[in-house]
Design goal:
There is one protein chain. The chain has one domain. The protein is built from five helices and two strands, in the order ββααααα. Strand 1 and strand 2 form a beta hairpin. Helix 4 packs antiparallel against helix 5. The mean pLDDT is 88.
């Protein structure tokens, strides 16, 4: 099962599938910076560009759905032990949370809310 399976819907309406209904690409390079579409396609492109964050996010979503607390996951994944790693992962969770927040504006979903709230909790824990 992919981490994106929770967002799949059999509906034909793009908005129901967490996609912005426009022809913009998932990712665009502008003046040396990557700009991502603020929907499921942009999140996929972002995680494709950040394989380590994709691995962490995949493990994270599995853990929080299998009775781990956010703090327990961060500790067991050895993310809390190094300030540099904490800062990098905090930035990744901040980016992912912004995608999830924008996707929730397209369509609210209980699973999406779980992920968004867990990302926010992780960001707060990583700030300390």
């Amino acid at each position: 099962m992919s981490i994106f399976d929770i967002f799949k819907d059999n509906s034909k309406n793009k908005a129901d599938n967490y996609e912005r209904n426009n022809d913009l690409p998932a990712k665009e390079e502008v003046l040396g910076h990557s700009l991502y579409k603020r929907d499921i396609n942009g999140l996929k492109a972002y995680l494709d560009d950040m394989p380590n964050m994709q691995r962490i996010y995949t493990e994270f979503t599995w853990a929080i759905r299998n009775d781990y607390s956010v703090e327990k996951y961060l500790i067991q994944a050895n993310i809390m032990n190094d300030e540099e790693i904490k800062d990098i992962v905090k930035k990744g969770f901040t980016d992912i949370a912004s995608f999830l927040n924008d996707m929730s504006e397209i369509k609210e979903n209980p699973e999406l809310s779980i992920d968004l709230n867990a990302c926010i909790e992780a960001i707060n824990l990583l700030e300390n």
